[in-house]
Design goal:
With about 140 residues, the chain is α+β, with helices and mostly antiparallel strands. It is built from two helices and nine strands, in the order αβββββββββα. A hairpin with a 4-residue loop joins strand 4 and strand 5. The chain starts with a helix and ends with a helix.
Length: about 140
């Protein structure tokens, strides 16, 4: 229920943001863009998968010093760091650093590892834009089988 409520509130913010000039100046609503992207952070164009659309939102927490392990996402995903400091590294050595309040369009079909480089837990919200029945994340070990 909390996830559904969060998604509804997120959708409302997006609607208000797209209609921001029409809002009454005395309204107690504030909206700011945290991410607008046509490509993932490694420069590849974002393409949505075929099939019946399904959006999945997740709250993810990584302990200090913790890592996600090498994995990939076969679908576009978008993340915002709520707390902490996150480092995302690609196999080719490219690195992206994120801190609280920063967002990114995640890489698609590219192995990467997320690592908490701070002293506090990393908390992030991630939205995956996939299709019904499609996997959201695949570990490196699963790729080799």
């Amino acid at each position: 229920m909390r996830t559904a409520r969060f998604l509804v509130l997120t959708a409302l913010v997006m609607v208000f943001q797209s209609n921001a000039p029409a809002l009454d100046a005395s309204a107690s609503i504030s909206a700011s863009t945290v991410l607008q992207a046509e490509s993932s952070w490694d420069g590849k164009t974002i393409e949505y998968p075929a099939g019946k659309a399904e959006v999945t939102g997740m709250m993810i927490e990584i302990a200090p010093g913790g890592e996600t392990g090498w994995h990939l996402h076969p679908v576009p995903s978008f993340a915002m760091v709520l707390e902490g400091e996150l480092e995302v590294q690609l196999k080719n050595g490219a690195v992206k650093h994120l801190k609280a309040g920063e967002a990114l369009a995640e890489v698609v079909d590219t192995l990467h590892n997320g690592r908490n480089v701070g002293a506090a837990p990393v908390k992030l919200v991630v939205f995956y834009t996939g299709a019904v029945g499609q996997r959201l994340s695949i570990g490196e070990d699963s790729q080799q089988k």
